[in-house]
Amino acid sequence: ALYGGPVTAEDGNEFTPEKQRTWFDALLHLRELAQDEQLEAPTAVPLPDFGEGRYTFTAWVKTEDDGVIFAKCAPQGPWSQGAKALFIHDGRVCFDIGWVGCLDSETRVDDGQWHHVAFTGGVPQRIFIDGELDADGELEPSPDHKGHVLKLGCASTDFPEQSQRTLHGELSDVRVVGRVLSEKEIRERFTSRQPPEGRELLG
Q1: In this predicted model, what pLDDT tens digit does every residue of 107-127 receive, in sequence order?
Q2: What are phi and psi of 150, to 5 degrees?
Q3: Shortest CA distance to 107 belongs to which of 87, 84, 132, 124?
Q4: 3-state class of 15 per DSSP?
């Protein structure tokens, strides 16, 4: 049933059927307002090519283990040529292009604290940890394969080979910018806000 019974929220407050109805009515009201004012949904913007495009990926990460932050790869099955992933291995952030190579950072992020991770591509590739440049390289660019999809927190069934294949931790404020942010801009994005908490978490 839609209003099956009381549920306890994370803050300890009881989420009762009456509160559910209140939220449901509010959503219906917002929908009516949108219809009355003929509001239009924003136009979808395509993702950049993660191999040859110019872009910046940023996210807040909190973990005590390894795992994938994001990947652009086949929806199912094994790791493949041209697939890409930003992941944590041995506590350090790495970027891999299938059958091309891997870029490894130096600073560990597996201490259970929030860290701001930024990655810029296509060439050169750069990894920033907490606003500071931590690794850069020039892996040969490989265009995204048709059918590859963007994933958060996981990649392929057999990748990374010697690490966690799903992120054992939390991700928040994940962003993809359609240009390469400068070092100053990345540092400002780290220093201008506090690590996310509570309902701001994405997963």
Answers
A1: 999 999 999 999 999 899 999
A2: -85, 130
A3: 132
A4: strand
Specify whether the CB–CB gap between 166 and 67 falls below 8 A. yes
DSSP classification of residue 3: T
Task: Say if CB 154 and CB 165 are below 8 A apart.
Answer: yes
What letter represents residue 33's amino acid? L
- In the chain, the amino acid numbered 99 is W
C-alpha dihedral sign at 66, 71, 75, 76? negative
pLDDT mean for each 10 residues of the chain (203 residues):
41 48 61 61 75 93 96 95 96 97 97 97 96 97 94 93 84 92 94 59 33
Q: Which residue type sits at 69? A: I
Lookup: tokens for 120: 């810029």
Rounded Cα gap, residues 94 and 155, in angstroms: 13
> Residue 199: helix, strand or coil by DSSP?
helix
The whole-model pTM stands at 0.74
